[in-house]
Amino acid sequence: MPSSPAPAPDRKRLRSPAPARQARRGHGRVTLETVASAAGVTAITVSRFLREPSRVAPETAERIRTALAQSGYVPNKQAGLLASGRSNMVAALLPNLANSIFAETAQGLSDGLQAAGFELLIASTGYSLEREEQQLRALLGWHPAALVVTGRRHAPGALKLLADAKAAGTPVIEIWDHHPPAPGLRPITFTQIGFNHDEVGAAMAGHLLRAGHRRLAYVDSGVAEDYRAHERGMAFAAAVRAAGAQAVALSAPGGDAFDAGRQVLAELLGAGPPAITAAAFANDHIASGALLEAARRGVAVPGRLALLGFGDFALARQLSPALSSVQLPRHAIGAAAAASLLAALRLGRPAASAALPWTLVARGSTAGA
Amino acid sequence: MPSSPAPAPDRKRLRSPAPARQARRGHGRVTLETVASAAGVTAITVSRFLREPSRVAPETAERIRTALAQSGYVPNKQAGLLASGRSNMVAALLPNLANSIFAETAQGLSDGLQAAGFELLIASTGYSLEREEQQLRALLGWHPAALVVTGRRHAPGALKLLADAKAAGTPVIEIWDHHPPAPGLRPITFTQIGFNHDEVGAAMAGHLLRAGHRRLAYVDSGVAEDYRAHERGMAFAAAVRAAGAQAVALSAPGGDAFDAGRQVLAELLGAGPPAITAAAFANDHIASGALLEAARRGVAVPGRLALLGFGDFALARQLSPALSSVQLPRHAIGAAAAASLLAALRLGRPAASAALPWTLVARGSTAGA
DNA sequence: TTGAAAGCGCTAACAG
DNA sequence: CTGTTAGCGCTTTCAA
Fold it and tell me: Please, where in chain B does CATH 3.40.50.2300 lie?
């Protein structure tokens, strides 16, 4: 008796609601019906019990509770979501997660969402608009209840997806940015929760100009697609020039950010005459690298060179001199986005934008005149 | 004519497979069928095209391609997964994400999984076993193809869920740990991918003992549930005592880790006689805080006090003196876990455990004797 | 308070 | 190469 083509399936008994009912590809999973028949009710009653226990008679409830406990039942979310047509997921796209700045935003989102029973689906883009579009497409397959993306620049395809989603009533929120719409540039706009990077760049310049510096550099991160850092740099340079001072644009090399900062210091010191006496950075890591290198070389900070970071990472206030920096609403951005989209979902109208506060924290590295 | 209760739905036409077919709660979403009828085929053909374009005639394919492009169709994953009974998701539980150590592991997992077409579902536990169990329960609702948890300590309920999953053939991997099973302690075991924290603790002690220290402290992180840090501390103390030297156990206060390290330095210096001349830390942040504070106070490192970190964060080699530390396979743990579970899924047998290498990197903060 | 029927959007199996 | 049929596990609607 070789290869008899598998035993004939006994799919002839089409009777009764009993647990028999051999499924097409039934891999002995515990389903609502398993629990139901153990409790002597039908699936729908167990389903009701799970969602609104009060709508089930106390005795029935007790039997279901027992059956549930013994079965090891785990509700199947795909089935539930598919059947209800609802979604309790929010999809978020962040440039990366290893960077503590976005990790905190993710935490803020997660905190706000979890309390409301929503789940967070995160993907990272590595600052690439192309990857953002890919990831967005993948995420949309889950039919999320809302979308959170970073920044206001997106690939054309992504923009279309976002616009479609918005048109279909799905809240779309852009975080880490809050700019007035560029006149005539993009017709549709989304909710924005963040701050204005032009203002920050100008404020960084203002802080250094007020200390009397006349030749100032902005050191970019070197991440080509981090346009927010570029914007700060442009605004910085504009403000510097508006004050009649000189602006120099530098870019940090790739690799370890501390090392990049160390290398940039040489450029900073070598420039001139007239010498550059103050530098603002795209982030605290690069700034810290420069600060540490200055200490190693015996370069006086802020005497010879004033240094100003961005992000106010934990390390900033630990260095000597302590690094002046811009403190950001990292967690708040996530929390506010969660609150905004939750409200939008509840009220059925577009999510509200918000400009969140940042603070320039002056410390030793930019002290005095 | 006030509030006429909405126009009567035209649900009378039950004919033909045409796109009419008013659904029960059909909210004009674009489905396979929408695309199919636009292309003049049925849903299954579009479905096939999406998965295996070669199985569809070139002409048909072309029509489908057009219809697809115009429709803005987004496949519904819940429906697809439910119908196929498959899952392309891996659920991972990590203590937290803001900590770069775990963020890198998540990145490693994500990298490995993405290449194989799997998606990563991440939740963080905040080092709480209770939250781990909750999150695990929530994650299981997605019926993931594999589970990744951090460490080998779990709440009883979580342990049961994991054991059930394993029994059902779902690979379960414990990361960041690799210990021989404690005799008679836990009957069932899972795949482990990480390293032995006892060995690291002993190696940290060995490194300092070799430099001639006779009274050594281990500074714990103060996170009660980070048992891996405790284990390193226990092993550290055991090795110190085995060498006939004295071991002191300290714990860092909560709050900012750098500040905690600064505070601990005072304790370290105040202890004795005999004085503590070397300290090992639960992580580089606390160690760095101590190092920075030592510099501020003019305490000689390693002359008066040798300092040894754990984790080898980017900052470690930037300080002066540079901080000795233990370099960990942060990314590799995630990558190896991904590879192991992928192989297990493919071959249909249990995932393979692996001990990954770590390195004690000796730098200035523990130099000389 | 409970159940029967139908369907969410998709895919497996089996024709043709 | 394409279509038909049935069903994934759950929830909605309506009836009892």
Answer: 85-195+330-358, 197-327
